[in-house]
Amino acid sequence: MALDKSLKRFGMLYGSSPVMERLYQQLDKVAITDATVLLAGESGTGKELIAQTIHQTSRRSKETFIAVNCGAIPAHLIEAALFGHEKGSFTGAARQHVGYFEHASRGTLFLDEITEMPTDMQVKLLRVLESGMFLRVGGSDEVKVDVRLIAATNRDLEAAVKQGSLREDLMYRLAVFPIRVPPLRERNGDIELLAQHFLQILNAKDNTKKTFSRNSMEMIRSYTWPGNVRELKNVVHRAFILSSDTLVIEEHLSDISARKPTLHEGFLNFSVGTPLADAQREIILATLKHFSGNKRLTAEALGISLKTLYNRLKDY
User: Fold this and answer.
1) pLDDT tens figures, 221-256
2) pLDDT of residue 269 exceeding 70
């Protein structure tokens, strides 16, 4: 499938807007180094794709790339997951286990949701970044690795430090080369191009020739896309499934045409008749924003488990 000539590509990223051009320039310069990179951007902006692009355009490209979501690993297991453990180091440790750092040696390790990592683990991570050495859980011999680290967060860094979810010394150590990932609403002109691109991919897969109507494209263009590129891709996919003929029209975009609640001074105002699923989604996202992306505080405030919150966010 031919890529729209007006939609530029850099590694695994697509976009032709000025902010994406600046992002490409940054990535091009940092990829050839071994500098630690800290990506900061909203959920759905493609931080893992950026990390993969850095890896693929680096001199480590033929080595292993491993992506780890720090928030998805239980706090009591994260040390063993990252650094491994020795046989008999704890109940159930029937054999030696090699952690992510060793698996990624000579390659790249991407730690997503770094602010969800327990602070005691952040101290140990800081030491690895400084020395390149660590101990497996239950071990006495230090292991030396050569890993290029890329970290990411969807939270405001200064707020995370103030709230105690990110150590200040670790932030500065990670931010050797900080990169702000622009949200989709700031990528002037990219929304339409990406929507067309995602539709072309689906057309090629199903051997169809579906297109957007003028009004449906205007809806896509005017929507704010709080879920960013991930949300756009899912909305296009749903519209593709719903459209029975060759034209995607407004009713196929019910995800973004529904009346949205408004947030004002900490309160959400809903229209009567708002579907429960939509209301739940907006409450969760508004609460997450209120707590500056802190998922643990969000789950506690909503009275749900952290696992349930992650499942909901994954669905969204």
Assistant:
1) 888 888 899 999 999 999 999 998 899 988 888 777
2) no
Look at strands 211-212 and 65-69 and give their pairing.
unpaired
Burial 233-271 (b: 16+ CB within 10 A, else e): bbbbeebbeebeeeebbbebbeebeeeebeeeeeeeeee
pTM check: above 0.70: yes
Strand order in the sheet with 108-112: 65-69, 108-112, 148-153, 37-40, 177-180
What residue spans define the domains of the chain? Answer: 32-182, 186-257, 262-315
CATH code linked to domain 262-315: 1.10.10.60
Beta bridge partners of 116: none
- The CATH classification number of 32-182 equals 3.40.50.300
What does the pLDDT look like over 8-26, one tens digit per residue?
999 999 999 999 999 999 9
Report the distance separating Cα 219 and Cα 10, nearest Å: 27
DSSP assignment of 117-146: S-HHHHHHHHHHHHHSEEE-BT--SEEE--
| Residue 187 C-alpha from the chain's centroid | 17
**How many whole angstroms separate alpha carbon 170 and alpha carbon 187?**
30
pLDDT of residue 258 exceeding 70, the answer is no
| Those residues with Cβ within 8 angstroms of residue 196's Cβ, 6 or more apart along the chain or in another chain | 4, 7, 212
Distance separating alpha carbons of residues 282 and 298, to the nearest angstrom: 13
Mean pLDDT, residues 15-43 taken together:
96
Q: Are 36 and 151 in contact (CB under 8 A)?
A: yes
Domain 186-257 has CATH 1.10.8.60: yes
Quick one: DSSP state of residue 33?
S
Q: Check pLDDT > 80 for residue 72.
A: yes
Q: Pairing mode, if any, of strands 65-69 and 37-40?
A: unpaired
